[in-house]
Write a structure and sequence with these properties.
The chain is α+β, with helices and mostly antiparallel strands. 24% of the residues lie in helices and 24% in strands. It contains 4 helices and 11 strands, in the order βααββββββββαββα. It has a 4-stranded antiparallel β-sheet, with no helix packed on it. A 3-stranded antiparallel β-sheet has the order 3-6-5, with no helix packed on it. Strands 7-8 form a two-stranded antiparallel ribbon. Strand 7 and strand 8 form a beta hairpin. The longest helix has 19 residues.
Length: 222
Amino acid sequence: RMSLTVCVSATSTGGKLALTCQLRDYRGSASTERDSVESGSISAGSQWLERHYGQPLLAQVYSETVAGFGGRNLVLSRYPIIKVFRVFDSTSTDSATEILSSEYRVDAEQGMINRNAGFGWDAAISQGLTQSVIPTEERKPWLVEYSAGYFFPGTSSTEYGATSTGQDTLPPNIHQAVLMKASRLLERSGNVKSEAVGDFKVTYGESNDDTDILDLFSQRIL
């Protein structure tokens, strides 16, 4: 079974994909009186967008066990990859061998590690009259420690393996989608399903006028 563990979480920005000053600029407002409410709408909008993406967007460090399937590519579940720290051919602390970084290449956007020698397939075999691979029972012996996701101002980039701090790699359309959603949550704050994010209560229910946000977001993830 796949095992994915978050070793360093995206805590430095509180999970937000925009700043309150950016939201005020987007809405044409200069007042800071509703700062806490605006901050809550950004948190809610960021969480809403991540639900549609299906994984965290901000940079985090992961430890993951993966099946090799005998091919040259090892597919990780989080991307874009920022840095691969270590790759092992086993999860056993007694027998694991670390693969040298010079032996593989990283496709950051696709979330893949490519190796000429390939990644061996370890599958469960049925013990009946005729031995065969049991479907969906592939073992996952390859252990990868890596960081993946996007940086946003306020992120301590070096913590995730980047070479410098203060980077902003969040695609502009994702940032724009967060501002659009946060702004609409402020406008529709009376129509909620009673989920609180700080002082802000918000619905995650779909709305017909959110399709343009998802269209904008999908330009990056498809």
